[in-house]
């Protein structure tokens, strides 16, 4: 790819000025003409890369099915998993039969202790519980692993769906979905009324559970959600639910629950009020529903289509179920993602990409270092701590040094539900084995073929899988302006999470520790409050007036703002290193654009995206990220370099008075 065509200038909209709407200047024609695939809720740059990675993975898994390498046990297992998913004839013939044993077990639940024991048994089969568990480094002592417990028990995306009037139609559709699934599972008794009654009981019970859930903003709070409890203290919050019985039924070693970080302790106190004999019929129906729901993607087409009708069409506005091969690829990746990744990187990750990313990351870190040193609102003492944290950042690029071992997984090309459950059990055992073991600093929480990136505060690491290191985010041959405006801003964003409203509460070792002076934290919170207010008033297309929740999205907004601002500084560092002058001489222009303009246009091109209205509303409720148009436009409104690059003046739509612009890092 030549330097000049890394930006598709011919696809820009000359009728929209970048000073008024950078997002639509760059993406306007695409937004008007692009269609969202019928099996998708979104379209855009991310989705295109996901599709490309998915096609590569399809080739890998089909090769493993049809001609695995001699003696390669992992390839055989990948092939078995895919073959079992693609065997539609067998799956249709089985119908609801795979549910029979679990539903019979639920029938025997006649006491609250029996409920706890059954829930534990189902935990190993991937059935949702009232308490979610995951294992991670202890935020208070990040050199050890600890179990984290979180509120759970809901079939809708969030507690708000059970109480807000705007979701009344979704609740009605959910009740009908529950009725349908009960009927398909043969739980309709003498007719539709039995299934409808079960559905009503489940919705009523989940509404009661939801009343004890913390909202999304509270759940983001790193301090409030860090409550390290002994098993005895945890049990005291919910005495009717025998945690030891539950854990042993789930085959968890006793050491697992010896200490637990409970994110929402009051949720357990609320759950206790619902664990009563008179509610047992409702709990049995809730268990039945969760058994059916967990297995639905692996059952006959009637279950799959009904599951999609609610979770795909109603909640996200998606028109069509994804083709079976795509769902099969997703199943294989969920079960053996790193085994697939090991094969993916052989052909899809050139070492030249790693070398250029190393330079980009070094420039971004240097830019943060300079920026922190120049901050006017932060004291020298806090700056020293911030710089120490920055120095301790660990970047991971492309793929893990060591891939996960799947030797414990047994696969059968004729047993889809069994494969799914065995894969979940192996993954669960791998996680449980972490308790009491040293921290594995080589572990990745995304596969190489994932189009994404992340920051992990307890490891103080930034991670960039191979699949995101492609256009429009990363061009191996493009000029620096394009790369620093796209992947540079992504790198800056992930580093920025270490300094956002929650990440900034962790130190360089990954410990949840206050390294700020009170005055500095107060100054930081004033800046973030201004940013919250900016986003609170924004309403995207298709949202019917619903606005962004600035408090829910503040962490990602800080990441976007800091990421782009610091990426621009890093771009300047690269120019200095390469001896580039800062004049606007014609020799520095490509496609008639200055490097500075190309930087911001590349940023806008990376956010190309459109979202179905139903999915837009769902995301505004539960997603900590702002809609694509604001991730582009609202960020540049706060960056002085954007004004200079495009001569943005008062009266232009993206103008924000200098005193209202927020710069944090």
TrEMBL record:
Gene3D superfamilies: Collagenase (Catalytic Domain), Neutral endopeptidase , domain2
Highest rank taxon of the organism: Bacteria
Residue stretches making up the Peptidase M13 N-terminal domain: 18-400
InterPro entries xref list: MetalloPept_cat_dom_sf, Peptidase_M13, Peptidase_M13_C, Peptidase_M13_dom_2, Peptidase_M13_N
PROSITE patterns: NEPRILYSIN (PS51885)
Keyword vocabulary terms for this entry: Hydrolase, Metal-binding, Metalloprotease, Protease, Zinc
Domain Peptidase M13 C-terminal: 452-661
Cofactors that this protein relies on: Zn(2+)
Family: Belongs to the peptidase M13 family.
PANTHER family hit by this protein: FI17812P1-RELATED, ZINC METALLOPROTEASE FAMILY M13 NEPRILYSIN-RELATED
Protein name, UniProt field: M13 family metallopeptidase
Organism encoding this protein: Aeromicrobium halocynthiae
Phylogenetic classification of the source organism: Bacteria, Bacillati, Actinomycetota, Actinomycetes, Propionibacteriales
């Amino acid at each position: 790819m030549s330097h000049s065509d890394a930006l598709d200038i011919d696809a820009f909209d000359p009728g929209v000025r970048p000073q008024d709407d950078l997002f639509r200047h760059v993406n306007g024609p695409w937004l008007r003409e692009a269609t969202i695939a019928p099996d998708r809720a979104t379209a855009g740059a991310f989705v295109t890369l996901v599709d490309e990675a998915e096609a590569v993975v399809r080739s890998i898994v089909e090769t493993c099915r049809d001609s695995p390498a001699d003696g390669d046990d992992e390839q055989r297992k990948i092939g078995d998993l895919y073959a079992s998913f693609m065997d539609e004839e067998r799956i249709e013939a089985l119908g609801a039969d795979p549910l029979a044993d679990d539903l019979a077990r639920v029938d025997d639940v006649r006491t609250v202790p029996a409920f706890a024991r059954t829930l534990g048994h189902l935990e190993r089969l991937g059935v949702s519980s009232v308490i979610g568990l995951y294992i991670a480094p202890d935020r208070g002592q990040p050199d050890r692993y600890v179990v984290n417990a979180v509120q759970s028990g809901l079939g809708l995306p969030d507690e708000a769906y059970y109480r807000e009037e705007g979701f009344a139609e979704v609740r009605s559709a959910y009740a009908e979905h529950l009725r349908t699934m009960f009927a398909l599972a043969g739980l309709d008794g003498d007719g539709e009324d039995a299934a409808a009654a079960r559905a009503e009981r489940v919705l009523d019970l989940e509404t009661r559970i939801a009343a004890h859930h913390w909202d999304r903003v509270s759940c983001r709070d790193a301090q409030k959600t860090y409550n390290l409890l002994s098993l005895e203290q945890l049990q005291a919050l919910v005495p009717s639910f025998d945690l030891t019985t539950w854990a042993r039924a789930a085959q968890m070693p006793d050491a697992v629950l010896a200490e637990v970080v409970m994110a929402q302790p009051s949720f357990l106190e609320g759950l206790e009020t619902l664990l009563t004999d008179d509610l047992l019929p409702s709990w049995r129906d809730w268990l039945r529903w969760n058994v059916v729901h967990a297995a639905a993607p692996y059952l006959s087409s009637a279950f799959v289509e009904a599951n999609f009708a609610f979770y795909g069409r109603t909640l996200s506005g998606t028109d069509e179920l994804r083709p079976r091969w795509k769902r099969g690829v997703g199943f294989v990746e969920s079960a053996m993602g790193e085994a697939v990744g090991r094969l993916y990187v052989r052909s899809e990750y050139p070492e030249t990409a790693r070398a250029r990313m190393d330079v980009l990351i070094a420039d971004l870190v240097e830019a943060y270092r300079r920026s922190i040193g120049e901050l006017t609102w932060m004291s020298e003492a806090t700056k020293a701590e911030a710089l120490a944290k920055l120095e301790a950042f660990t970047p991971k690029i492309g793929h893990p040094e060591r891939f996960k071992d799947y030797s414990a997984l047994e696969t059968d090309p004729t047993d889809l539900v069994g494969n799914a459950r065995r894969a979940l059990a192996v993954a669960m055992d791998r996680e449980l084995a972490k308790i009491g073991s040293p921290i594995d600093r080589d572990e990745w929480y995304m596969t190489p073929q994932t189009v994404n990136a992340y920051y992990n505060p307890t490891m103080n690491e930034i991670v960039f899988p191979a699949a995101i290191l492609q256009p429009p985010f990363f061009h191996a041959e493009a000029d620096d302006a394009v790369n620093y405006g796209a992947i540079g801003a992504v790198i800056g964003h992930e580093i920025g999470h270490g300094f956002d409203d929650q990440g900034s509460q962790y130190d360089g070792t990954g410990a949840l520790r206050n390294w700020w002076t009170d005055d500095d934290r107060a100054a930081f919170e004033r800046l973030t409050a201004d940013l919250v207010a900016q986003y609170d008033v924004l309403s995207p297309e298709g949202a019917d007036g619903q606005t962004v929740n600035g408090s829910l999205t503040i962490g990602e907004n800080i990441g976007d703002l800091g990421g782009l601002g610091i990426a621009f500084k890093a771009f300047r560092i690269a120019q200095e290193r390469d001896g580039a002058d800062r004049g606007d001489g014609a020799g520095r222009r490509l496609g008639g654009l200055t490097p500075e303009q190309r930087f911001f246009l590349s940023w806008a091109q990376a956010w190309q995206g459109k979202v179905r209205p139903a999915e837009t509303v769902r995301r505004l409720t539960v997603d900590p990220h702002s809609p694509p148009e604001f991730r582009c436009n609202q960020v540049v409104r706060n960056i002085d370099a954007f004004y200079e690059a495009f001569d943005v003046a008062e009266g232009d739509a993206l103008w924000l008075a200098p005193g209202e612009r927020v710069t944090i890092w």
